[in-house]
């Protein structure tokens, strides 16, 4: 699902590639929808767009007149952007009160190296920047960018709510950022917080020299506070003793009066600027411009110590020779009686802060040990260190986003506009999303199927946070039961995504992986109920969630069904492509994993079958727990877990492999062709790769063996003592197929597209490399099979530790060598991490693997 979008940050990848992907998206077959329109459909301003909007509104008006009684005044929204009309799960009492206040502030801007905000649509934002060098020029480090080439960064400790410690290594300098929240007598809503930033030379203890330069170098860091709502800030004159005076302050709804203080003990130079700008997505440029202007005027890269009228952004610059350390403190409710600012300030700076940070480290460590018990489970400190980083980056990567998704307008609402016209879309309702992210640099936003895996880990660390995140996702469901699979909310998020990919299609699915964690939670509720100790609020949670899950299940069960009753396929593959070796299936989450060469509605996808079986079983369980009718889910689950039926639809007796079914030929190749662009008369012919089909496709099995073939095993539909089970253990261990010393590869070496490019620029993605989410699912099944009575218990028990060791060994090695967890692991280069990094989304499942928590 996460299409590799090198183009968004890497200028070297071709624009041709981008265009064609955009086209794929645009070609999704329309889904028929009823309903009227429309409140807000004319974003953008070009004449063409306006024309389209007028047409759309015209069509809409027709629907509208037909669909509504004259008594109704509010225009109806199109169904696609109408919320499911049931109570929101995130409105439950358990997410208000104490919980909400505790979670108010956080490092909820994971796309920044250090970014703090509150969980409100318009927040005070805080963040760290520093001066680096990129391509021989000064550059501001601010948003996480792979092109910054930091040697390493990430949270080493983070508890998800009150404390975190991060290290960033950049060009020989180490920045350590510690974040602490605190509630004291006199604090306003959400409490106070402090950030300590330590700046030192990398390897400070060694007396070596770097690049022939002496180690005593100086550097500048910046810290800002910005009012998203645009309210202006008050600045205090720079006193001699900065420690005693606030630097900037203001007043904001909920938290009341606030002050921001800087405290330092070393001799550092402090300057500042007050700026006015309501577009927060280009703060980096704003600060760089301010600095460059000063540079031209004074010859020094130093902020001007002045502020614009009505400044809503305060930037502090702190320069000093390494090492130095500063404490920054945010105090809320300073206008309340008994606020006692000096006392609170003392408690959050200097030695007091030091003491509290040490205490928080200890608390983290104890809780980490209690939760994952790694000391009993893995070899040593090298592994445990990776475990801590995996957890900390996962929970430290949780973000709060607010905004409106853009939704493609279904075809029947559109005029006859030419293909590839400028984007035209509807806006989803304004919504909040609290979610973890796959990668702070490359995918710093919510992804539906990733989130199911993220919550497997987070729910073990802090169940409340997990419940909250799941609630936010389910609340994004529209009246048809659809959830946009990629959440690009707000300008800051959008600034990281090329325009072509922003628009979401209501016909597109994405695996219901949230059901994995929902089932886990339901099983624990079932146990609590049996022991008579179920909490009222857990029951409430499941009851409130239930109608949403029903709508969600039904959406899959109806829109993704196959021609044969009770079968499924991922709808929306491109059947007209002449560029792709095998048309991608982004909706499945496995992007370029090979499917039928010729997409038709005869297709059957075995992974979706298994997801539906798992979802139906989960629904049946929840229905029973909450006293709802469960019969139809049970019947559907029985049908989908019936091995005879599954085998009829997906089992190739000859090879003993589970396969997709469809119109397919193995004889498809990419060939170079010379093409002339008809629009350019004198143009030189271009050489491009085109797909050629050398043999007529036939209906039948799609003989690619890989992760998809292992779904009946991974989701444990194969009974423990069936002969198919025994056969699958042999398949699992076959070195020609998926087994490697670094984990299970995504596609067998025997597949005709193993490690093949899909287009000239589309490198193999799910066609060989090792991915942690699928390894976790398969390993987890292996573990459970090794515990279940049956003929194959012993074999499973033999393979399980081998696969587990392989995964742990490689991820731990790669982390220590490269400083990161990676998107996936390559085989040609002996298990090296590749793709986006840090990728602390599902790769962090390595911690559950270490702790044997399945
Ligand atoms: C989770 O929330 C419940 C109340 O809703 C509370 O009793 C419990 O202590 C919370 N757990 C954590 C880890 O915060
Ligand atoms: C610091 O030490 C590590 C390991 O010894 C080395 O790889 C790295 O290059 C050193 N960094 C600097 C800036 O000297
Ligand atoms: C300072 O912090 C400690 C907790 O570490 C707390 O017990 C004490 O009450 C705080 N002092 C003030 C003035 O709030
Ligand atoms: C910031 O973004 C806004 C809106 O996209 C734009 O108008 C403005 O020029 C940008 N400012 C800078 C400094 O890039
Ligand atoms: C799912 O779809 C199948 C086929 O249309 C239907 O028979 C079954 O009842 C549906 N299941 C549920 C729970 O709605
Ligand atoms: C499984 O499906 C087959 C074929 O549809 C059917 O004959 C059989 O009764 C089913 N088994 C169970 C246990 O429902």
Q: What does this protein look like?
A:
Pfam families: Glyco_hydro_63, Glyco_hydro_63N. This is Mannosyl-oligosaccharide glucosidase. It is a single-pass type II membrane protein. The chain is of the alpha+beta class. Among the domains are: 111-205 and 214-380, Glycosyl hydrolase family 63, N-terminal domain (Beta-galactosidase, Chain A, domain 5, Distorted Sandwich), CATH 2.70.98.110; 704-854, no CATH class. 33% of the residues lie in helices and 20% in strands. It has 22 helices and 33 strands. The strands form 10 sheets. Strands 1, 2, 3, 4, 9, 13, 14 and 15 form an 8-stranded mixed β-sheet that branches. The chain has an 8-stranded antiparallel β-sheet with strand order 5-6-7-8-16-12-11-10. α4 (283-298) links the parallel β13 (269-275) and β14 (306-307). It is globular, with a radius of gyration of 28 Å. The two termini are 24 Å apart. Mean pLDDT is 88; it is low at 5-72 and 416-422. One 2-acetamido-2-deoxy-beta-D-glucopyranose binds at residues 554, 557, 561, 565-566, 632-633, 636. Residues 554, 557, 561, 565-566, 632-633, 636 line the site of one 2-acetamido-2-deoxy-beta-D-glucopyranose.
